[in-house]
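Sequence in, structure out.
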Amino acid sequence: MDSQTEETKNEIAKSSNESLEAPQESRHKWSALFLSNWRLKGALILMLLIAGMYGWKNLAVKKVEKETEKQAAKLTETTGQILMEKNRALLRMTAIPLSWVVRMEMPKGNYDNIDQYFKQIIKEDRFKVILLAGTDGKIMVATDRRMEGADLSQYYPASLLEQYETTVSELNSEELIVAAPVIGLTSKLGVLVMVYPMENADQKRIKP
């Protein structure tokens, strides 16, 4: 009887312990599940924050790059315009004094001297061609001998003969053309034409 009672007590105690352990194990499982979910959510939130910051950084960098490209293009355009204006001024400064020299030599018929002046300038600078045309449009002197005796209009605009002021304009995308009238004491004697090549489309400058 005593042994049965003792066994019964042991069974009751074991059942009590198992019933106590069951809620504890359940709580541990829920705690572990909560902690694992919290960590997973935290990791996802952190990944989203990093991705957002990376995307924002890329957008900011692209925006800065676009602004830099715009400013560089604007600066290049402005610089090109300044250099072009400088070129025009320097070409005028070369053509006007030369036209005065030609004006003094033409009435005397000293075309050989004019030819020597042209050749000297060609040697010292990058002019493609320098020529003198009379009021009839005939080319009288030219650094390119093939042009002599031909009509100016065969090579360049005939309107150059009608000008009474020194002009510098773009002949094409690669060359500038200077036209300086040669004016005598009583009438116009001819026109001085100078063709100057630009180095390239992006950088137009005259050698010092």
